[in-house]
Predict the structure.
Amino acid sequence: MATVTTLHFREALLPSGFARDVRLALDGGRIASVETAADPLPGDCRHGIALPGLCNLHSHAFQRAMAGLAERRGPTADSFWTWRETMYRFALAMTPDDVEAVATLLFCEMLEAGFTRVGEFHYLHHDADGGHYGDIAEMASRIAAAAGASGIGLTLLPVFYAHAGFGGQPPAEGQRRFICGLRDYARLLSASERAVAALPDATIGLAPHSLRAVTAGELREVIALANGRPIHIHAAEQTREVDESLAFSGLRPVEWLLREAGAGHGWCLVHATHMTDAETAALARSGATAGLCPITEANLGDGFFPLPGFIDAGGAFGVGSDSNVEIGVSGELRLLEYGQRLALRQRNVTTSPHGPSTGRALYSRAFAGAAAALGVTAAGLAVGAPADIVTLDPAHPALAGRSGDALLDGWIFAGGNAVIDRVWRNGREVVTGGRHVRRDAARRRFAAVLARLAAA
Ligand code: NGQ
Ligand code: ZN
């Protein structure tokens, strides 16, 4: 019998908006009751401001090991494509132990920064020579172990990656650890399900990597395996991919996915940066989620997502930390809005004229969109919902004198990660005073891996 914990919050963001004096009872991993305007009772743990935890819809965990290490200019002008060469070299150097160590600290950092579930777009499948491990899901099981150790919710997205470019070009040498045929992919999917089975509420989705890495025929076969599970794909992140798509099929990537692959509900198009107005509206109407990764998109020089047109057409979006160069809910949401301000020379772009605050608009939209993308219901702080709760410290100067939606504006635009106090995940308190309970051990293990990689 799980013990019931009761928490009392000065304010909490409920599905109906912020409420004061909120009492939540947690039973096991779920919220068993919600009372508002409730006095704290003896035995309640009393805290400041509660939010439902956000899903991080797109991560490549191993890339955390190279955060900050690709910020030196090479012999030629640097671009996404030269960064990718560096990233491939890292991918070739990492063992399963390395990946587990890096992912464990990363997932602790995500929890400290307000993400309570991660969509791990996982393609580092095979041994360094490209041979399969004895268990084809060896690497997936390391991701699952990292999720288990940190406590973060996991939606594992095993990736199908087969080609180096449009038209089924043979894979490059540097991609050998990612490559699967369709039969191996089906085996990888079932082995991945077994790898996450011990986690309390892990789920699986499918991830054909991109239109560069899969042919139309392969994409159809991967989609046929989905069986209601989410489908994630990178699309139109760089203009070069758009040009290659036009040259190959006469259609742009998002246009092609909507018309030829039936992308819509249950899909997440990651980035979708370069779209025409017509594609933007069509993607919004399709019911797919746009998987925006503002910090990585800035770091890689991708471009600006056409947010106003997408929102006007009713589009759903969430955010992801992608290359994991920097981790934070507030940082991703802030840069999403700031990118629009820089590109459009306007302010408060994400919210409507008489809508809520920009912080609230960003948070509520990303909350709903990312949950849909990761195949979980976005119930928020409500009876029966998972007890995935993030608290903000009301004593932080960025929240001084504020209440309601202004707390989100203060956190996202003024305070950042330092505002986060505690995090409960699946009913367990895993972050206290802004620190994950296993932070120190995870940092030591991470540092040892980085020292080894640097020496190699
Ligand atoms: C990825 N990263 O899957 O990690 C890709 C690059 C590729 C971004 N698209 C790898 N940001 O395209 O093969
Ligand atoms: Zn990605």
